Fold this sequence. Notes:
about 160 residues, mainly alpha
Amino acid sequence: MNEDFLRCIEVVLRAEGGYVNHPSDPGGETNFGICKRNYPHLDIKNLTKEDAIHIYFRDYWQPMNLSGIIDLSAVLEIFDMGVNAGIRTAIKMAQRLVGAYPDGKIGVITTAKINECEGFTDAYKFRRRKFYRTLANKKPELAVFLKGWLNRVENCHL
């Protein structure tokens, strides 16, 4: 684990909070943002913060390949979106914003385009808010989470 990850994960964990078992959450039982649907073998209720951090590093940070992005605020936005909405969704959103081919994988071209994009973080935040509003409109059962998602975007900063 590196310093950038450790700084970003603290922001993500503040947004995710602790144990929740909301009936409208399609992920089901959740702790530190780790959900039973994705990790059926885990005892979610007793998951430790340290275990969650290791899962985020292994299953989100490393596969997202964010290390070449210079602006840590941009890294945080993409990482946080990946945790909340899925890695491919987060990366494709960034790729579309900067005009890279939206394959859901960060390579040298996507990295370079993000690094060259002036105002990336604000534009990405705007797209995140739009994504969440659209999702709540398409799936009314998820509208209960909209305020929290929008607050998450506003509070996503180092």
